[in-house]
Amino acid sequence: MPRNQPLMAPAPGSSAPAATTTATTLAEAIRIALAEDIIAGRLPPGSEIEEHQAAERFGASRTPVREALRELAAAGLVEIEPRRGVRVARLTLERLGEMFEVMAETEAMCARLATHRMSAPERFALQSVHERSAAAVADGDVPAYDALNREFHSALYRCTHNGFLAEHVQALRLRLAPFRRAQFHHADRLRDSFAEHAALLRAVLRGDGEAAAREMRAHMLAAGSSLASTLRPAG
Amino acid sequence: MPRNQPLMAPAPGSSAPAATTTATTLAEAIRIALAEDIIAGRLPPGSEIEEHQAAERFGASRTPVREALRELAAAGLVEIEPRRGVRVARLTLERLGEMFEVMAETEAMCARLATHRMSAPERFALQSVHERSAAAVADGDVPAYDALNREFHSALYRCTHNGFLAEHVQALRLRLAPFRRAQFHHADRLRDSFAEHAALLRAVLRGDGEAAAREMRAHMLAAGSSLASTLRPAG
DNA sequence: CACAGTATTTCTGTATGCACAATCCTCCGA
DNA sequence: TCGGAGGATTGTGCATACAGAAATACTGTG
Predict the structure, then answer these.
(1) pTM above 0.85, yes or no
(2) Is the CB of A5 under 7 A from strand D?
(3) What domains lie within chain B, and their CATH numbers?
């Protein structure tokens, strides 16, 4: 099935044999590398990307770099002004809020659908992820919790049994990633996030889709406002 | 504000001074032209697009054609298999169903948010669009109803007062467009669609967001299943 | 010293050329 | 007749070259 390739490598901290995981084409490799740079904050929002310089960095010509940049633009990670140049997407606070709302509503949708459709093994797996994240909270291990948080949400996406939806919301998440890096700076947020997951999980396990949606929406909005409070005016 | 350019020209049947509306760049013009061809069905799902031949058709070189194709791929209108070629996206029935579900849920989200946020003038405008579409139904004027249907939904998007959401759902709509061309073939579907809009509008006007969401979901699913019944196995 | 106008530089947009991968075709052998 | 090896062909991926727009530096004038 010649589906659309994902914008990034399978998982940012995956267990796969490091690099050369997927790179059928130079342009694709460059796209992945640039996306990682943007998401990791090495290319902060607003910074300019010059084609020639990027090409040099990757030991390639401008052609594949241009292709990579076009695709990143389509995904919303960079902005292209014709004949002016490319820069990493920089959002107004208003637009960031709008994106968070869409994210929250879409995740809520996932939670509701997943509640009604997930299988018993899936239920068990979700619970397991949540339990493992408890340890990370106890240790204050931010990177570990961050990874488990992603896994928790991804598991929920899969439980919708709607592959397109899963890809769709994952793309949204990717697009917001550059602005969520400070997500768990405060230990408070870590604990709150875990508690919200717990409430969500309870709703899911008792089969109350609407409640699950509400919990998820609240969870995402809490994350959003926590983020907003740590953000300087124009990220 | 250097936001992301839309994938297509403003409106397929707009009143703007025809061509040369927007075309800062050759690649962009080609992208728009190809998108229109795909959506209008002149390039049906599954058909191959050969770079050289497309370039010749537009009197350009392969370079801008390639860029256009990458962007179309990112939007999901075409599929690129590295070193194999490009073809207009062809969906399995399963995936089409998944996309319709996401579309339905997202439109429902829009309806709910719009209900709670729209202003009095917006309410009036939405009603006006609906009333105009009544005439199209009475005349059995399919193209007119099609246009008004789009306008009805677009108006609702705007009423969410969430610009990102509006763009987001519009992109979804665009992506499904190649598979919705047979939408109002049956006069029955025309009348049903109008009736569903009426029910939706009633819910919106009495401020019942949840009901509006339900009506919208039902409306979209009805459209989807009507479409499925007129579709050969692998569109 | 400020500023308008011009020259220069820089970088994007497009064209062209080359190399290699994928496919197709031919032809030979079982 | 069928299957497969090997070469020809087609078309993509990438590099390079060139033209023109935008940004910058420069110069002369008020």
Answers:
(1) yes
(2) no
(3) 26-88 (1.10.10.10), 93-229 (1.20.120.530)
